[in-house]
């Protein structure tokens, strides 16, 4: 028997602590944990069953992504691509209050219908890819525990299904809970946290222009319009337990009130950690991210544990009007982008609805996720005769087609069965503004939304963006800082006690990559989803080995088919469900 399972030899170790500079050394692994680290190298190879030569390569802690929507995908893809392709070894699911537990069997279809629009996961994919074998949240965690996983997973308790389970979809959208319903929700939350849920999550985007992720019928989701009182009651559970944290996605139109609410919620939760979502640069309105960063700093000065999850990859997106939903915060656009293709075409052809779109355009109002419609590009077309429009903006398309730009956009799209592809260029990528976000002590990189909006974008690439562009090309972080932010910081914020740095005793979640040659490939379409559906994917070259709990899952992008991932109840591999009383 070898003393060690694996030795990683001669790599440049960047341990994620940020306090220690990179050094060359060997790492020995036993039973999924880091057993020994030797600076300068020299661990005896004959002591290991397997040796990985990492000379010339960076050896870093696996990345931790706290904002994903892989709840459904986990049931058909144990590797949670694209995140796992970019070195992510642990994720949090159940974000933004969305998920599938608890769920009465009769509500399954309805919850999938919501998920199809709020996070834009194809309905057919969920129908075919999800084999439901749970009702309660504890049963859901047990189900995840049993399933093969190529990556570690922890889950928030999402509040939308909890509200729907107790109050029904209609009731939870239209009224406050009765005393009995509130008591039942709090009981279920306790039960879910006992089972290993790491806290709870909500999306509160209100009913205004920032409400971009709505239900399939265009109405806000239950948590979007839930009362502050209900939030405080749920927070009280964490306060009483002295355990768990809150993932909060909040951007209602009344922005300052939102920030105040964040502080109040922290107090109600007994100073539990709050993951605030999201800080994103908007080059047209830099005061927005500045105001949020100032607020986060102030909260921490006051002793509150509030972290800001920050979008640190380009916020570009592609879409076709056949299923695009992210204009939902804008009434005129929402009106014409609900329903199936024939319904949409009918509404887009309606003179009155057209007039409201032109008026919207002329008033300079612009959807929250895209900025002005006139600045959106024509990315690709279906019909040959329209190729002359590719590369134009919608404003330029109006001139070329000699009509109002809103009409031009819709006429072109309708003539192609709504399959024209439009492109929103990134507007968060200014170097100086991004530096302000990166420099803040309390920002966690990411907001990948992994598993969601996959016909529009793939922010799951963010670790690669960080290393390739923000560190190597722009010099905005040192590698020590980058690897602290990509692994240790989210682990600290989310209460992982057993991973996030390369230190003896920590889980051997390790990424070994070629720094100079790490490179993102262009975005492509993959037809690899259940239900014959497609998604955008991005692959990176340069990740040589990706290791989860000491077992290699990818070598040069090739999956080894090993499934060493664990369910992290209470945020760590040793966490167990509390026995039912
Ligand atoms: Zn989300």
Could you give a short account of the major beta sheet? 9 strands, mixed
Q: What percent of the residues sit in helical stretches (DSSP H or I)?
A: 25-40%
Work out the number of β strands. Answer: 25
Radius of gyration, in Å, reads 24 Å
**Strand coverage percent:** 15-25%
Low-confidence region ranges: none
Shape estimate: globular
Give the overall average pLDDT: 95
User: Number of helix segments?
Assistant: 16
Each distinct ligand: zinc ion
Question: Could you tell me how far the N terminus lies from the C terminus, measured between alpha carbons in angstroms?
Answer: 43 Å
Structural overview:
This protein is an alpha/beta fold and 581 residues long. The chain is built from 16 helices and 25 strands. Strands 1, 2, 3, 4, 5, 18, 23, 24 and 25 form a nine-stranded mixed sheet that branches. A six-stranded parallel sheet has the order 9-10-11-12-13-17. A three-stranded parallel sheet has the order 6-7-8. α6 runs parallel beside α7 and α12 crosses α13. Bound molecules: zinc ion (ZN). Zinc ion binds at residues 67, 69, 95-96, 249, 449. Zinc ion (ZN) binds next to loops.
Name the descriptors:
six-stranded parallel sheet, 581 residues, alpha/beta
Write a concise synopsis of the structure shown.
The protein is an alpha/beta fold and 581 residues long. 32% of the residues lie in helices and 21% in strands.
Set out the fold topology:
Layout: E1 4-13, E2 23-30, E3 33-39, E4 48-53, E5 58-61, E6 63-65, E7 88-93, H1 108-118, H2 123-129, H3 137-146, E8 152-155, E9 157-158, H4 159-174, H5 179-195, E10 199-204, H6 228-241, E11 245-250, H7 255-268, E12 274-279, H8 287-301, E13 306-311, E14 317-319, H9 331-336, H10 341-348, H11 351-362, E15 377-380, H12 394-401, H13 405-415, E16 421-424, H14 431-439, E17 443-446, H15 462-473, H16 479-493, E18 510-513, E19 519-520, E20 524-529, E21 533-537, E22 540-541, E23 543-548, E24 551-555, E25 558-559
Parallel strand pairs: 1-4, 1-5, 6-7, 7-8, 9-10, 10-11, 11-12, 12-13, 13-17
Antiparallel strand pairs: 1-2, 2-3, 5-18, 14-16, 15-16, 18-23, 19-22, 20-21, 23-24, 24-25
The structure holds zinc ion (ZN).
